[in-house]
Amino acid sequence: MPARAAGKAMLFLGAALLGSVVAAAEPPDSARSVMTAAEKLKPGDYIWAPEIAPQGPLLMIVSLATQRATLYRNGVPIAITTVSTGKAGHETPTGVFTILQRQVEHYSSLYDNAPMPYMQRLTWGGVALHGGTLPGYPASHGCIRLPQAFARLLYGITRLGMTVIVTDAAAVPRAAPADPLLRSGPPPAQGAIMWKPERAPSGPVSIIVSSTDRRLLVLRNGIMIGSAPVRIDGPVTGTSAFMMRAGEAGASWLEIPMPGAVAAASPTGFAGRVHVADDVRALLAPLLVPGTSVIIAPDSLRAAAAVSVELLGGDDDPPAR
Question: Is the Cα dihedral 96, 65, 268, 57 positive or negative?
Answer without folding.
Answer: positive
